[in-house]
Amino acid sequence: MEFLTDLIGADAIGMLQGLLLNLVLALVLLLFGLFLARRLSTLLHGVLQRGKVDTMVAQFLRTLSLGILSVLAVVVALDKVGVPAATLLTVLGAAGLAIGLALKDSLGNLAAGVMIIMLRPFRTGHVIELDGMIGTVEEIRLMHTILTTADNRELVFPNGVVVTTPLINYSARDTRRLDLVLGIAYKDDIAAAMAVVQRVLAADERVLKEPAAQVILLNLGESSVDFGIRPWVRTGDYWPLRSSLLIELKNAMDAAGISIPFPQRELHVVGDLPAPAQPPQGEAVAAANDR
Predict the structure, then answer these.
(1) Using one digit for the tens of pLDDT, what is the confidence trace for 194-247?
(2) Which positions ≥6 away from 97 have C-beta within 8 Å?
(3) 209: which residues sit within 8 A by CB, 6+ positions away?
(4) What pLDDT was estimated at residue 45?
(5) How far is CA 52 from CA 56, 101, 126, in A?
(6) For residues 82 and 22, is the Cβ–Cβ distance under 8 A?
(7) If you placed Cys at 147, which of 82, 135, 194, 196 could pair as Cys (CB 3.0 to 4.6 Å)?
(8) pLDDT exceeds cutoff 60 at 287
């Protein structure tokens, strides 16, 4: 130690010791700051969930708070080693501008993610149709929205696409209308068939009384008389009820002796079939001589 003191001087040794101490303190502050940022963001997320805040909003605020607190921890640590916070913020601003110009599409997705969070055209768990594909909203991230399909495929949409593409939200309303089409044969009684349909609808408790279900004559088709069956149901009952109603309608029609026809064609032959063409008389005689 005395050798180093004589070599570089006591003042230099003191500066090195101070710098080393500041580096250690800066590292401790950084690690503690990152740990504290993670814990506080997790605590905020738990508070929001207990307050029954929408999951999408809670997750977004957790990610945002974690990012802000992490940047703050880095600034405090660098300030401890002698980098002024004002200078650091200036550098970060310039770097942010350069990065923003280079990653304008990504920043557009980020801005779109904020819009989705604020406007909430859909929520986590909603079933939506986007760009011709249907899926359940699993997660809304800062850059992307994640959907899962009924066969468990994952769809990833950039948020910029989500906010600029028309979408259908199948879960936004509490109730939906089922639209079914049922055909009967032309020989069957229309009033009797409509009465059977009304009985099937009235027997299922999942069919709402208000608004009342509609049973209308929809079309006189090529092979059948088609009814439009339009009951109102709770959104969660839509698909299970659709399947069970089709089964019940088929069984009820069979029991009532009303047929559900399949497409068919009738061929009518008008007049006698033409006689087969006869060869000329000379050719017929030649053919007989050959035999």
Answers:
(1) 999 999 999 999 999 999 999 999 999 888 999 999 999 999 999 999 999 999
(2) none
(3) none
(4) 80
(5) 11, 38, 17
(6) yes
(7) 135
(8) no
3-class DSSP state of 52: coil
**What's 188-208 look like in SS3?**
CCHHHHHHHHHHHHHHCCCEC
What is the pLDDT averaged over residues 27-48?
85
Q: Which residues pair with 216 in a beta bridge?
A: 228
277-286's contacts with Cβ under 8 Å and 24+ in sequence apart are none
CA triple 106-109-114, angle to 5 deg: 130
Whose tokens are 């060869």? That residue is: 279
- H or E segment to which residue 277 belongs: none
Alpha-carbon span 56 to 275, nearest angstrom? 80
SS3 267: coil
Tokens of 229: 């069956």
Report residue 36 as tokens. Answer: 């504290």
The whole-model pTM stands at 0.59
Handedness of CA 134, 138, 139, 144 (dihedral sign): negative
Q: What pLDDT, on the 0 to 100 scale, is given for residue 14?
A: 59
Condensed to tens digits (0 to 9), the pLDDT of residues 53-84 reads 666 667 777 877 887 888 788 877 777 777 66
What sections of 51-84 are H helices per DSSP?
Answer: 55-80
Contact 164, 116 (CB under 8 A): no
Neighbours of 164 (CB within 10 A): 10
pLDDT above 70 (res 276)? no
DSSP state of 280: P
